[in-house]
């Protein structure tokens, strides 16, 4: 589900084994060829040894589609891992008092290819997909092409949610 992981990330993901047990499993799995070791780049330019299923180390190139992710997507579930891999700090602010929220009650991460490009505050409201705000990440430009891909994703989500239309709040694009 993670695609690749360190032994510590495996222990954190499954939460039923200790880090020591995960480390022992990784060592045994490497020895028997059940997994292979790869190096994975982090957002800060450092590399970390990880394991993956044999033959999947390179993996396919990610597509260029824009996707709104669940806050519980395996790529984001371990917040420290997401920050290391993508340079993306994320938290759900449902338990943060409204005046102290940075983004909103339930904001979704937005991914394009292999990069997290922003976050979006949206919800189903009276048969519409109401988009309150989209915040691009620092350095992410919202050109015509990227806006088109985001619109395509919002249309897909609206269809899945049974929404007849998409309603964009005034000033929704927070660049």
Helix-strand layout with pairing:
Elements: H1 7-14, H2 19-32, E1 36-41, E2 47-52, E3 66-68, H3 74-77, H4 79-86, E4 107-112, E5 115-125, E6 128-136, H5 144-160, E7 165-168
Parallel strand pairs: 6-7
Antiparallel strand pairs: 1-2, 3-4, 4-5, 5-6
Helix pairs in contact: 1-2
Write structural notes for this entry.
- This protein has 175 residues and is of the alpha+beta class.
- The chain is 29% helix and 26% strand.
- The protein is built from 5 helices and 7 strands.
- The strands form 2 sheets. It has a 5-stranded mixed sheet with strand order 3-4-5-6-7, with helices on one face. Strands 1-2 form a two-stranded antiparallel sheet.
- Strand 4 and strand 5 (115-125) form a beta hairpin.
- 22% of the residues are buried.
Query: What is the helix/strand order?
Result: HHEEEHHEEEHE
Radius of gyration: 19 Å
Helical segment count: 5
How is the main sheet built? Answer: 5 strands, mixed
Structural class: alpha+beta
Shape: elongated
Key terms:
single chain, about 180 residues, alpha+beta, 5-stranded mixed beta sheet
Give a summary of the structure in a few sentences.
With 175 residues, this protein is of the alpha+beta class.
């Amino acid at each position: 589900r993670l695609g690749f992981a360190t032994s510590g990330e495996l222990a954190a993901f499954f939460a039923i084994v200790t880090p020591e047990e995960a480390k022992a499993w990784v060592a045994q799995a490497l020895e028997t060829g059940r997994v292979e070791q790869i190096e994975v780049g982090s957002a800060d330019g450092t590399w970390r040894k990880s394991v993956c299923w044999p033959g999947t180390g390179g993996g396919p190139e990610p597509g260029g589609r824009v996707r709104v992710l669940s806050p519980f997507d395996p790529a984001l579930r371990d917040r420290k891992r997401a920050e290391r891999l993508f340079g993306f700090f994320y938290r759900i602010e449902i338990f943060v008092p409204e005046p102290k929220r940075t983004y909103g009650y339930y904001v979704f991460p937005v991914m394009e290819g292999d990069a997290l490009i922003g976050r979006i505050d949206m919800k189903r409201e009276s048969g519409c997909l109401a988009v309150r705000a989209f915040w691009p990440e620092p350095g992410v430009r919202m050109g015509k092409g990227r806006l088109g891909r985001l619109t395509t994703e919002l249309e897909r989500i609206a269809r899945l949610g049974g929404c007849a239309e998409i309603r964009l709040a005034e000033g929704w694009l927070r660049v």
